[in-house]
Amino acid sequence: MNLSVKQTLAAWLAGLGQITLLAREAAAALLTFKVAWRNLIYQVYFVGVKSQTVVLITGAFTGMVLAAQTYFQFHKVKMDTATLAVVGVSMCSELGPVLTALMVTGRVGAAIAAEIGTMRVTEQIDALRTLATHPVDYLVVPRVLAGLIALPLLTAESISLGIAGGYGVGVGLYGIDPVYSWAHMLKYTGDTDLSIGLIKALIFGGILTLVGCYKGMTCGVGAEGVGKATTEAVVAASITILISDFFLTLGLERLLNAL
Amino acid sequence: MIEARHLLKRFDDQTVLDDVSFRIENGESVAIIGRSGCGKSVLLKHVIGLLKPDRGEVLIDGENIVPMDERQLLRVRRNFGMVFQGAALFDSMSVAENVAFALRRNENLTEAETARRVARVLEMVDLPGTEDKNPAELSGGMRKRVGLARAIIYEPQIVLYDEPTTGLDPIVSDSIDHLILRVRDHLKVTTVVVTHDMRTARRVGQRVLMMHDRKIHASGAPEEVFNSPDPVVRQFIDGVADPEKSTHGNIAS
After folding, report:
1. Is the CB of residue A37 less than 8 Å from the CB of residue A70?
2. Are the beta carbons of A132 and B151 separated by less than 8 Å?
């Protein structure tokens, strides 16, 4: 193994360790209610309410295109009425949480890294510390908590709009029988699928906000440092979401079916 | 009382502080001078625990703060106020919100009482009626004053100033110097000012520490340091690039 690979691996492991310590510090602050509540309300508004448009458009059009593509294939084997079942299962357990998380990462994860990064380079984080305020309590906990609250709700909206969009395309555009479609969707989309989606959303909400905070708090000097931290936050959070999605799918499927 | 013992600080392979020791008594006013990049601000950040030394101790009222974690340091920092070089105001908040920040976080006061105390400290720093302004609307001198108001609102025992007059014109610098003295005399605080502005050092320091080559090079009363025949001190006081051109005299005044 050459030196640069070793250094990259060491830096990656160090980053993983630091983000774990940040998560532990945030969890400890949360458990002792060291939360800036006013800041939390604003962050829920910023992460949740302000992400509505992007999430709803993503959910609706994903459901619509999924319905169209599924219909094209199922129509060949005369399974038209199973179209909405595929849309329902896919939106609930996979596309809803993953695409919502990726879209929110692009909007919120980047904004968190840029805001905290700018605070770091302008010594505002040091100022917080001199004012006897722990930066994790004031900056990290409200954002992570907002992510944990907002992402499941945004995902639920995305799933709903996706199914509605899929219904509109399947029934309205391609003339699939609405009653059979609806019945098949309810039959094949179980509580487990929805639970998997919402649990994933909760975890993704934690990941994207925590990575954004970590990248902001460790950003380099100057405008270049802030820009780099912002890019890294989006890339790292997106990749973490996609990788963890695979393991969550396997783990949650087994866990929830065993219950 | 602030005491530093044998501080050593390195950033990667660059040593910034090397065996730095000093002691500042309660109520004393000390100016730390030295060339840009000599480690003055780094030293100041060690005093309040924003940076940790690689070796050595920092004692605040006899308590070593170096082994403390961030949460333990929060308790110690309640005794401190710090004014940053760039003011470091929270740009998402108004002047009043900036100044009231520590009160709102750490004390249970009514909004009326908080507003009253904010108005009082803004009055003290000659910025009455600026509560609703945003930091972006303020000049450099005004930002420093708001930073000072924020630092002193909970009446700390020690106030640290990091280059309080850098980037300000001589008239505004003069008013900031007077403000530092007013705060010192009014609140009876220990004052530590890091500066490379000779006029500020002379005016606010009851004692001057000069940093050079990673160490405390000279220490004493302002007259003693400013009249020192030491070539390093002379070069800095006289502000000449060529040490041969330094003179022994009271040029900086």
Report:
1. no
2. no
Tell me which residue has tokens 């403390």.
B68
CATH number of the structural domain spanning residue B68: 3.40.50.300
Boundaries of domain holding A210? 36-258
Whole-number pLDDT of residue B253: 37
Whose tokens are 């070089």? That residue is: B85
Q: Is B163 in the same domain as B150?
A: no
Given B124, B155, B186, the domain boundary residue is B155
Same domain assignment for residues B73 and B134: no
Task: Give the count of domains, chain B.
Answer: 2
Domain span holding position B175 = 1-79+156-253
Question: A120 pLDDT band (50/70/90 cuts)?
Answer: very high
Tokens of A129: 């510390």
Judgement on whether residues B108 and B122 belong to the same structural domain of the protein = yes
Instruction: Look up residue A165 and give its amino acid.
Output: G
Are the beta carbons of B77 and A36 separated by less than 8 Å? no
Residue of B42, B68, B77, B85 to mutate for A, most A C-beta atoms under 10 A: B77
- The reply to whether B84 falls in a domain is no
Who among A126, A132, A133 is closest to B88 (CB)? Answer: A126
Chain A closest-CA separation from residue B207 CA (Å): 24
- Does A132 reach chain B within 8 Å, measured CB to CB? yes
pLDDT at A75 over 90: yes
The DSSP 8-state label assigned to residue B84 in this structure reads -
Same domain, B166 and B64: yes
What CA–CA distance (Å, rounded) separates A59 from A97? 10
Q: Which band of pLDDT confidence, cut at 50, 70 and 90, is reported for residue B246?
A: low
Measure the CA–CA gap between B17 and B46, rounded to whole angstroms: 10
Mutation site for A-interface testing, chosen from B52, B76, B91 by largest number of A Cβ within 10 Å: B91
